[in-house]
Each structure stands twice: as C-alpha cells, then as structure tokens.
Amino acid sequence: MPDSYIIPWTDGAWTHSPASVTEIIADDATQLDITAVEGSDAWRRTAYGFVHDTEHALLAPLAVGEAMEVTFHAPWEGQFDQAGVFVKIDDERWIKAGVEYADGHLGLGAVVTHGSSDWSVGWVDEWLSSTITVRISRWPDAVIVRARADDGEWRLVRVAPFSGDAEASAGPLLAAPTRSGLTVRFTRWARTAADDALH
C-alpha cells in the first residue's frame, strides 16, 4: 500500500453526534473511544421499508485518486452493532463498509445506497477479537473496499459504482441500532493514494 498520512480526528465533521467521545493517548497517538446512541443506523428502504439516517460518521473530503483507512476494535455483542467507513455524496448516495454483528455472527460487508440500499455480507467470526482495518479507494467510476484483521492479508470486499464527478467525504463510522453502550475504539484514520489495481 502507498505511504499514508494520518488524518487528525479534528479534521472530521460528524453526520450525527455520538453519545460520547473520549480521547485516549496510546503509543504517542490519539485514539478515540466513541459510544453510539441507541437506535443509530444508516439504511434506505430496501426489504425493511424504513429510512434510517442516524449513523455516527466522522467525515473529511475524499477525492478521486485517494483512499482512506480506518482501524478499530470493539466488543461485538448487540444485534447489528457495526463499525467501519462511511462514504457520502448526499443522503441518497452513500456507502458504508466494515463489520456488523448480526444473528450471532460477525459479518464483513458493505451497504451501497443509490436511493435504496443493498447489503452484501460474509461471516468473519475469526475476526471477533481482532483489530480491523477497512480501506476505501475512490476511482473515477467506483469505490474499492478492502479490509483486514490485525496485520493479515487484505481481503477484497466490494467493487461498487460511485460517481467521480460528485464531491464526497468519508471517514470512521459506527452505529448501534438495537442497544445502548456500544463503544468502538478507533485507533487510526489515514489517507493514502487509491489502489491502482483490483488484483
């Protein structure tokens, strides 16, 4: 992967404020413990019929040719506990990618929304105790999602269409649709050049 630039947490703006944010100094770096509001989520219409625009996403601009990486860990316990990266053009066009705890399993996947949401997911229960990194690369016509556990191999998660003409922003995401008390520790937020190949 290309050299990375650490993004200060203060460079981001929240889509919706979380319940609390606590700064932790570790290894000469500032990490964030972020607690989600119960009922927070991002979803539009498909299969469920509802619209949820209450996610907690800390966003900074993401240009074509750039990538963002977000690293985090948490105790995954509540139905639909989730964390990862959010990429947003507007309320009708966005992507969330990362992990979500559902039906007793930790799933790695993405929700791509263009008016309505879809959902692709596969189990990664072996990642339950891991530190997870999600990487989003923005191409002229697509977003490429990769993820890894700890220092493991990068795994391709999704290739999704995404307008290269629109202004977009991206950054850390968390949500807790069904419970209070989900706290995710975000340890790193970085910007790099986008991946130059899929394979």
UniProtKB/TrEMBL annotation:
<dbReference type="InterPro" id="IPR013320">
    <property type="entry name" value="ConA-like_dom_sf"/>
</dbReference>
<dbReference type="InterPro" id="IPR009784">
    <property type="entry name" value="DUF1349"/>
</dbReference>
<dbReference type="Pfam" id="PF07081">
    <property type="entry name" value="DUF1349"/>
</dbReference>
<protein>
    <recommendedName>
        <fullName>DUF1349 domain-containing protein</fullName>
    </recommendedName>
</protein>
